[in-house]
Design goal:
This protein is of the alpha/beta class. The chain has nine helices and nine strands. Strand 6, helix 8 and strand 7 form a beta-alpha-beta unit.
């Protein structure tokens, strides 16, 4: 399937948590450290078990430590660096837009969420590639979508379907629902499920 590409500046927008950042290596150590399990469960299994109808306190605790201490273990999603470099080499601009509040909830220590993420981006070299001025943190999902619209992103990649189907998303944006190991599959609601290697191939083929 061929998609229209503008002749003016083209923007590739990327979500951060669980899209650009792969927290999979962090779950085991953090779950064990905080007494939340054996460290053998997947993210989906943990989410299902810890997000109980009566309370999701344990899941929120895990999220708080995952997005702070977990960055010591986190890696880049497979193929993400190559995708960014490929986009830049083809004169695309790249921005990162993340829904990330300033701090964790007070009951979890009011820990800074943005500084560790910024440091991680610098450590893996992404900040130097895209420019620190193209990294944005939003207080809410609506603010995040407004930033995507401000950039008029031609492509945006996110692991959360609710962001991509938000009515305020630019109508021309090609919306990629990030799924590791999935190679470019159309969905009923107009999204594309894909991983970074298949997005890289699309960027090359679209020239």
């Amino acid at each position: 399937m061929t998609y229209w590409l503008p002749e003016v500046a083209r923007w590739l927008g990327l979500d951060l948590d669980n899209t650009l950042i792969d927290y999979t290596p962090a779950f085991g150590p953090l779950v064990i450290e905080h007494g939340l399990g054996t460290g053998t469960e997947s993210r989906d299994q943990l989410r299902h078990r810890l997000r109980r109808p009566d309370s999701d306190e344990q899941w929120q605790l895990l999220q708080s430590v995952l997005y702070t201490d977990g960055l010591a273990y986190a890696t880049m999603a497979q193929g993400a660096l190559d995708c960014i470099e490929t986009a830049l080499a083809r004169d695309w601009h790249v921005c990162i837009v993340s829904h990330k509040t300033l701090h964790t909830p007070e009951r979890f220590g009011s820990r800074d969420l943005r500084a560790p993420a910024t440091e991680w981006l610098a450590r893996v070299g992404v900040a130097d590639l895209v420019g620190s001025e193209q990294v944005h943190f939003a207080e809410s999902q609506d603010e995040k979508v407004a930033l995507i619209a401000e950039y008029a992103c031609d492509v945006f990649v996110d692991d959360l379907e609710e962001v991509l189907v938000n009515q305020a998303m630019p109508s021309h944006t090609l919306r990629i629902l990030y799924r590791a190991g999935v190679r470019w599959e159309s969905t009923a609601d107009g999204l594309i499920e894909a991983d970074f290697p298949s997005l890289t191939k699309w960027l090359v083929d679209a020239e």
